[in-house]
Design a protein that fits this description.
Structural class: alpha+beta
Order of helices and strands: EHHEEEEEEH
Number of helices: 3
Strand order of the largest sheet: 1-2-3-4
CATH architecture of the largest domain: Roll
CATH class of the largest domain: Mainly Beta
Strand content: 15-25%
Amino acid sequence: MSDSDVVRLRPRRIRVVCWSVAVALVLVASVSATAMTGSTGNGFGTFQRGDQVAMVGLGLLGALGVLLLTRPRVEADTRGIRVRNVIGSYELPWEVVRGVRFDRGAPWASLELHDDDLVPMVALQAADRELAVAGVRALRRLHQDRLTALAGG
């Protein structure tokens, strides 16, 4: 199996947006933490170093939560397809796949299985336009090549 027989896909736009938002969250939390000095404003206490650390920690946790959205990817070869979404992963042989779908108006592509299940592929997002279309075409080509090989062999 050569590298040309392997298709690796990741969303592009959502990764850019998520990384930008994650950096902004950490920056805002850090600036807020440095502003947390002196009295709390209601006269019941003062901000401590722990409050500042907690604020930065909240920013980091928020950033990590946003970066979970960059997790999706698809990898396929002549044997099968591996789909990793935000939550959940699937490893399927091409034999169980009926087709690769990207319905009009759908936010992402999906795999239609022979048991009528649909497996979403969040890595192939409509927001990525031509990149997503090229990815779907490559997956369809691999799927068709595998079905042809099975029918002929």
